[in-house]
Design brief:
This protein has 373 residues and is α/β, with parallel strands linked by helices. It folds into two domains: 116 residues, NAD(P)-binding Rossmann-like Domain (Rossmann fold), CATH 3.40.50.720; 203 residues, Dihydrodipicolinate Reductase, domain 2 (2-Layer Sandwich). Helix content is 29%, strand content 22%. The protein contains eleven helices and 16 strands. The strands form three sheets. It has an eight-stranded mixed beta sheet with strand order 8-11-12-7-13-14-15-16, covered by helices on one side. The chain has a six-stranded parallel beta sheet with strand order 3-2-1-4-5-6, sandwiched between helices. The protein has a two-stranded antiparallel sheet with strand order 9-10. Strand 9 and strand 10 form a beta hairpin. It starts with a strand and ends in a 30-residue tail after the last helix.
Length: 373
């Protein structure tokens, strides 16, 4: 019996390159199959990474039947994640699921039930949890350097347009739902991550207010931040700006935003306020004995939208270790659903100032039926 896990990559797009590279660098894994409806895309990945004799499939069901496949990376567009996850869970495969994991709470709950029923391990790819700067900040919080955290603010600012290979699907409301679902979910997850005191713990949301707006929706004249040029392209079908105000367990207050309208390069601003210190970006202010100054926190900040900049190696090493040790990840599907709940703001519904707007009420139901309770 091989001492390596066999890996199936489902979806041969941009992000799959990082999954493939990380699996190649992990001695416990070997890529044995790639599945994509575009056969040429799958073959290019084999050639680019010199994978040798691996199975190439257009059908997920056929790929999952290949002998020797133990782990699956779901790297397909978000609107097909649910069917991919249900198939992989039914086949008994442990899996990493790219974010967003699903396009609705109903989908996510169906996926969660399938995962639980089949006893498979999951990691949802909120990859910034493994970012070196984020890990340093999380340790500082866990060690009590900031005291008790009272407030967290996170923002995802990126003028997404056709420089991104997923634009034609990602801009569509029917396939990708919203800016918060497409990419703001990273900021929503970071909010939960830094609001919890434990080093491997994310805080449960309790209540939120949400607004969506902006000036970009439906307009074809758009910006490319890589070339610094304006030109005509397919328009965004949902609001490009969303702001959430969130109350989390332990009384922590938070603000999270996604801004696809910021005419600037990608940034991921971060602020954590405790009763004994503050973190702004990569700087710490925590005075001791009457002395204090801003100190730079070591670590690589999340200052690029390029997937090659993100810590997929650490994430996939963690996934493999969870399977080895038969333990659940801190970022499994059950936990990720709590982040996705924050992203499911229904942009076509507005509430008057002062309205009750809890997690459950936001969906037009004032009964306390939040999945967190």
């Amino acid at each position: 019996m091989s001492d390596q896990y066999g890996v199936l990559i489902i979806g041969a797009g941009w992000v799959s390159t990082q999954h493939i590279s990380a699996y190649k660098n992990n001695p416990r894994t070997e890529i044995r199959a790639i599945c994509d409806i575009n056969h040429d895309a799958a073959r290019r990945r084999v050639e680019d990474f010199q994978l040798g004799d691996v199975g190439l499939y257009a059908s997920i069901d056929e790929a999952l039947r290949q002998p020797g496949v133990d782990l699956v990376s779901v790297c397909t567009p978000q609107h097909v994640h649910c069917e991919n996850v249900l198939a992989a869970a039914a086949a008994g495969k442990h899996m990493i699921i790219e974010k967003p994991a699903g396009n609705s709470l109903d989908e996510l709950q169906e996926m969660r039930d399938a995962v639980n029923r089949n006893g498979v391990k999951t990691v949802v790819s909120f990859v910034l949890r493994w970012n070196p700067l984020f890990q340093q900040i999380k340790r500082l919080i866990a060690e009590g350097i900031l005291g008790e955290v009272a407030c967290v603010e996170t923002d995802y600012q990126s003028y997404n347009s056709d420089w991104w290979g997923g634009w034609e699907q990602g801009r569509r409301k029917d396939l990708s739902v919203s800016a918060m679902a497409v990419a703001g979910c990273h900021a929503a997850d970071a909010l939960r991550w830094f609001a919890a005191p434990g080093e491997y713990e994310a805080a449960d949301p309790v209540e939120l207010f949400a607004y969506a707006g902006g000036k970009r929706k439906g307009k074809s004249r758009q910006f490319n931040p890589l070339s610094n040029q304006w030109y005509e392209q397919s328009p965004l079908e949902y609001d490009g700006l969303e702001i959430l105000l969130v109350k989390l367990a332990g009384g922590v207050l938070g603000k999270v935003s996604v801004n696809f309208e910021a005419v600037q390069p990608y940034t991921f601003p971060l602020r954590v306020y405790g009763d004994r210190g503050t973190i702004v970006g990569n700087r710490l202010y925590a005075p001791r004995d009457g002395q204090g100054e801003w100190v730079e926190i070591p670590g690589i900040p999340p200052d690029s939208s390029d997937v090659s900049h993100h810590p997929f190696q650490a994430e996939i090493d963690h996934f493999v270790q969870c399977v080895d040790d038969d333990v659940e990840s801190h970022c499994n599907l059950a936990d990720a659903i709590k982040t996705h709940e924050l992203t499911q703001s229904e942009n076509d519904i507005t509430f008057p100032v002062g309205s009750c707007f809890s997690v459950s009420c936001r969906r037009g139901d004032c009964a306390s039926r939040s999945p967190w309770r």
